[in-house]
Amino acid sequence: MANGNDHHRRDQSSELYFNAAKLFAYLRKKRNVDPTRSVLNWSFHFESVATISDELIDSLVELLGDEFEADEDAIRAEVHVQGFNEPDLDGQGNTELALIFTGVVRERRLASLHLKFAQLSQQVGISYCGVTCLEDSGGANLENLIKWTDGVLETTAKWKIEQLAWVAPVFRDSHLGQLNDLGLETTDKIPNAHERGFSQVRPKPEIVRRLMATLAAFAWVCAPDEIVHDETVMRYIQENELNDGTFSLPEAKWIATPRNLARQFAVEAGWMTEYMWSLAWLLGYPPTPNPCPEQVTQEIIVALRDGFLGGFDSGFDELMNTTRVRSLESIITLEDLLYCAHNAMFRIGNVDSTRIVQERRHSLTWSLSPGVTWEQTDVTGKS
Asked: Is the pTM of the predicted complex or chain greater than 0.70?
């Protein structure tokens, strides 16, 4: 069993089922799949206002394995903890758990498992949300789409900025086709990179300080006091000359709020990890932001924070010396891909998926808009 490494967050467009008969009927009629004969991925979802212990996860896995007569190798647990703290710490914030079983399921077994999950969840004070079937995922998870996006850029980012006028429609058509293959339909009316006037990336010091500001603001709101002390964050802000112009307007408000009261902003601050990822990518952090509507994993953010940024021990000068801004061409190309994906998510109408992609795109669009503030950056997803 893989426990706590993928930090899974369910795509809110996937309906969760408590009624086994209803789910089986849906699979047979709408997806032309016989769940009693086909090996599928079944994802059981739980939520808690506190950390879900390893012991409880093991109990849930054992219950699932016993009901389906399955080995633990067929089950994996994916945990997402909202906030800065690691999953095995007793920190604050909501916890989401998905137990994913790969195999064949009988309807009465599923109905029985629903009841047992609901009963155990009530006893231990967590919420059992139901099950969805991931048969249609096609491997389009965050990790696979990072590789997919790298492959797209390999073919669409090989041009020079002086060629933008004629090459922008070419890589736009390629991006539309690639996203259509993922089932994302984008309007062909949104302006391309040349029409939007992209021609330069903003100065590197602005990008470095913007990234450092996101780390400070996120930690101030979400990091447990015993892991990141108040003095550590404030010293980081002062020594690196992070000011109101460096933070976004909400971030500046959070920093100005006493630490214990700033916790109220945790839900909104949770979105910061998406554009923090893209800001780091601009400076050479390797995992590529992509159109997957799953939230960025804790592994990517922890490696970004502790490895790439050096936690709170690295300063502005060091980051200026150890990072390098990616080529203008690669930034424009990835921004175009995420712009198209953002539009596709907007057309679907899924609020969470739209915002995930929009936040990843925001940093790239901002970097290509010198002189424009974070709030004034045009990141609408409409045509």
From this structure: no
